[in-house]
């Protein structure tokens, strides 16, 4: 009994932090595969934690860091594995907390000029690189020059600051495509995804672009409706000056634009609802960073 208890206490705790938009987390990328591979280890030495994150499509620091600290429970012997936005959450966490080791997949250090990344709160202040590096025994970092969401220069900068063991792999994109990577890295803690990378990246860009276009069109409609109101008001004033009664009103353009506005609002709600349901490949939608199944991502 005592021997079994000691064995349980010695199990290596590993927490996987996914990217932005990765829900349900076990349907996204390589997370469930890694969990299963580690738990199949014949020695039973690994205890793997993989859970859906709060605010999955925003991946905000104010939501993710407290969740990792208070809900997922880690200590100085824990290993953290982060992908995309999960990397930034881990780095902010390590500015104050200690762990045994860290694996970062597709990390960055700026918001890349993206308003959604900027809203995630990780990039509103300088990084404390010395604290991050000092709070873990080792850091292994993966990135690919073919990553369309996070330029490789971002990862190289992070690697230089953290003095990580940096591995740059060709043709891996944002580490969301299965195939040769799994075969080449099967013995590693990390492999690639069970999700189609191109579907995710293209759908993520289309979704954000559609939201931007909808907001722009809505502003234009509001402007046009305002102009029509002014024209109608002037016409009414002219008619009153001429003291001619009027029995008709010029409301057809406004009615049309108002109807169009309502239609666009419905389209925008549909886009938002789709994002809220999660970004899996089956829905043609994670993330990750950057993502952003994200922030990943």
TrEMBL record:
Superkingdom classification of source: Eukaryota
One Pfam family named in its UniProt record: Ser_hydrolase
Protein name as catalogued: Uncharacterized protein
Gene source species: Rotaria sordida
GO molecular function: hydrolase activity
Bias kind Low complexity: ranges: 246-272, 280-289
Residue ranges of the region described as Disordered: 236-297
Coiled coil: none
Entries under PANTHER family matching the protein: SERINE HYDROLASE RBBP9
């Amino acid at each position: 009994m005592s021997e079994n208890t000691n064995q349980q206490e010695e199990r290596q705790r590993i927490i996987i932090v996914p990217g932005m938009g990765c829900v349900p987390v076990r349907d996204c990328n390589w997370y469930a595969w890694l969990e299963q591979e580690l738990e199949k280890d014949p020695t039973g030495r690994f205890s793997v934690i993989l859970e859906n994150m709060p605010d999955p499509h925003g991946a905000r620091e104010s939501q993710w860091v407290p969740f990792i600290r208070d809900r997922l429970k880690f200590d100085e012997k824990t290993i953290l594995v982060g992908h995309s936005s999960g990397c930034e959450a881990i780095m902010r966490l390590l500015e104050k907390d200690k762990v045994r080791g860290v694996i970062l997949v597709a990390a960055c250090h700026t918001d890349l000029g993206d308003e959604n990344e900027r809203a995630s709160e990780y990039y509103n202040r300088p990084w404390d690189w010395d604290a991050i590096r000092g709070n873990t025994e080792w850091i292994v970092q993966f990135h690919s020059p073919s990553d369309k969401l996070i330029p490789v220069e971002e990862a190289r900068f992070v690697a230089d600051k953290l003095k990580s063991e940096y591995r740059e792999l060709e043709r891996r994109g944002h580490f969301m495509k299965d195939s040769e990577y799994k075969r080449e890295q099967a013995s590693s803690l990390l492999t690639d995804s069970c999700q189609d990378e191109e579907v995710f990246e293209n759908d993520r860009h289309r979704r954000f672009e559609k939201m931007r276009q909808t907001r722009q069109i809505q502003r234009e409609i509001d402007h046009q409706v305002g102009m029509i109101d002014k024209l109608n008001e002037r016409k009414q004033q002219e008619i009153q000056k001429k003291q001619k009664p009027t029995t008709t009103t010029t409301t057809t353009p406004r009615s049309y634009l108002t109807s169009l506005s309502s239609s666009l609002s419905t389209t925008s709600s549909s886009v938002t609802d789709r994002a809220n349901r999660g970004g899996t490949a089956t829905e043609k939608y994670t993330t990750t960073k950057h993502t952003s199944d994200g922030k990943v991502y």
